[in-house]
Amino acid sequence: MNIAANSLEHHWMPFTANRAFKSDPRLVVKSEGVHLWDHRGGQLLDGSSGLFCVAAGHGRTEIADAVHAQLQTNDYMSPFASGTPGSFELARKLAAILPEGIDHVFFVNSGSEAVDTALKVAMAYNRARGEGQRIRFVSRERAYHGVNIGGVSLSGMVKNRETFPVVMPNVVLMRHTWSPNERFVRGQPEGGAELAEDLQRMIDAYGASTIGACIVEPIAGSTGILVPPKGYLERLREICDTYGILLIFDEVICGFGRTGKAFASQSFGVTPDIMTMAKALTNGAQPMGAVAVSDKVYDTIVDAAPENAIEFFHGYTYSGHPAACAAGIATLDIYENEKLFERAAALSDYFLDKMFELQDIDLITDIRGYGLLAGIDLAPGAAPGLRGSEVQTRLFWNGLHVKFTGDCGIIAPPLVAERSHVDEICSIIRKTLEETGH
């Protein structure tokens, strides 16, 4: 593939050092299975499932065929006061794998939209039950909940906030759960459950009657795979139940088999009131997200409205788009037919064994992991994030795609990966870090 001079300048790329990228571009022109091909003809292993989206591997013709057939049959219809069959079928299939009691699904177009929708659901629920004064949201340091204004307001990652100071008020942050005393801990740390008491501290400081919801990622993903300490999520659930506060789990990254079960809430045995999801919902083949809510939340909002009136004044032009729903249905069929969640659970021990074997590398300062997720922290360079950017580029040209946040690489291979692919991922990481040196 030839790249004409300045042909890249018109596209302002997201979360990218645009000047650096366009001076030395890394373009992917083909994908199949667990592999990618760059514009120079090189082959890469996809070590982060795209952006944690492509759980079933690239190039799934079943999904492409379903989208093609849907677009030829009915390409679009307004989702407001009308509908298409696919959205109802996808919601039914999702309800079958969601935690018990989470039976109602609202479709959106991304994880960011899912988070903002979840916030509005929480507001609508509290208003419907006569507690509209519950306007405060509790989030966490090092949290990532997308890039719309609601998600940015909840964010606990400084680079996602500092340029955008005009955000929602009434958001307070609990501490994150990572501790430097627990480096290289595999799975859930033994200590740290007491950090859930931060929610109680917020209640003591602001009053329980002002707090509408607490939102956390079961595993904090984009910040570097922070696995919850044993008992932590359980204690959050207990506090929320005591004070009538909604618990929201952001499962955009850790949903759809990444933890060995359909959702992390099931892996950890804690059921929230509201869940957000996206990414692997359509295997990355179509933009889509969703918010799933408990029967209590749905019924409270719907029953509070007059008969024949709109109950929830919210939605998007492309909510439940027919093509996205077709992709979602085909994707869930693949997960079920190929038992990919079970396959992920079976591969997890080997994956984590190999990830933690990398801890002898001098540049690595910590490794964390659960299921088919691992975070690898690197010693920073001259400034935070520069080491990670350099290593990410070196990994690409050495044949491995890995998503980096600052100086942390996040490894999340497709659920269809084999042990040999895990070996290759680790081999390329070791080689690249040895080349990078100190």
TrEMBL record:
Its cofactor is pyridoxal 5'-phosphate. Keywords: Aminotransferase, Pyridoxal phosphate, Transferase. It is an enzyme of class 2 (transferase). Signal peptide: none annotated. InterPro entries: Aminotrans_3, Aminotrans_3_PPA_site, PyrdxlP-dep_Trfase, PyrdxlP-dep_Trfase_major, PyrdxlP-dep_Trfase_small. Its EC number is 2.6.1.18. Transmembrane segments: none annotated. GO terms for molecular function: beta-alanine:pyruvate transaminase activity. Belongs to the class-III pyridoxal-phosphate-dependent aminotransferase family. This is Beta-alanine--pyruvate transaminase. It comes from Rhodobium gokarnense. The lineage of its organism: Bacteria, Pseudomonadati, Pseudomonadota, Alphaproteobacteria, Hyphomicrobiales.
